[in-house]
Specification:
18% strand, zinc-finger, three-stranded antiparallel sheet, alpha+beta, 167 residues, three-stranded mixed sheet, 6 strands
């Protein structure tokens, strides 16, 4: 690590701490030449392996852009999309893998997108999972309805007992 003050090619780590989100490490360093201190933030890089075999760095912006198309005309803000991209990245980093298939990233998007907006979820899933017929849409809608009814029944059961449903 080059010193940002004197450009000396070496530095000594004085202190290391994990950031609040746990995704990066903050290191306090000292230059042996000028004795000045500086801070670095280190994160593990994620690489995406495309279908063609090419590898490129992970980009939240690509997630936002891809999901934005599915959310067109829906009540979803740019902040909602940024939070979704952050959730997806956190889930992918939690997997512990440094290289991810583009397909895995698409699968990781589906859950948070379903929580955000079901219509956008169906749009994204129809392209991503290559729906080829009306039956594919009907099956996806049936699954969504069943999950919504189960969640509603669990919430009502929690209301009836006076306890939260997941207590």
């Amino acid at each position: 690590m080059h010193c940002p003050f004197c450009r000396h090619a070496d530095s000594r780590v004085v202190d290391s701490r994990t950031s609040d989100d746990g995704l990066s490490i903050r290191r306090r360093r000292q230059c042996p030449q000028c004795n000045r201190r500086f801070t670095t933030i280190e994160t593990a890089s994620l690489s995406v392996v495309k279908r063609s075999g090419a590898t490129e760095p992970f980009s939240r912006e690509k997630i936002v852009n891809g999901v934005r198309k599915a959310c067109q005309g829906r009540p979803v803000s740019d902040d909602d999309l940024a939070v979704l991209a952050q959730r997806v990245e956190e889930n992918l980093r939690a997997s512990g893998s440094a290289e991810l298939d583009a397909y895995e990233i698409g699968l990781a998007i589906l859950g948070p997108l379903r929580d955000l907006d079901e219509v956008a979820y169906l749009r994204f899933a129809s392209v991503y999972q290559a729906f080829s017929s009306l039956e594919d849409f009907e099956a996806a809608i049936t699954v969504l309805r069943a999950e919504n009814e189960a969640a509603r029944a669990a919430a009502e059961a929690g209301d009836a007992t006076g306890q939260p449903a997941d207590a």
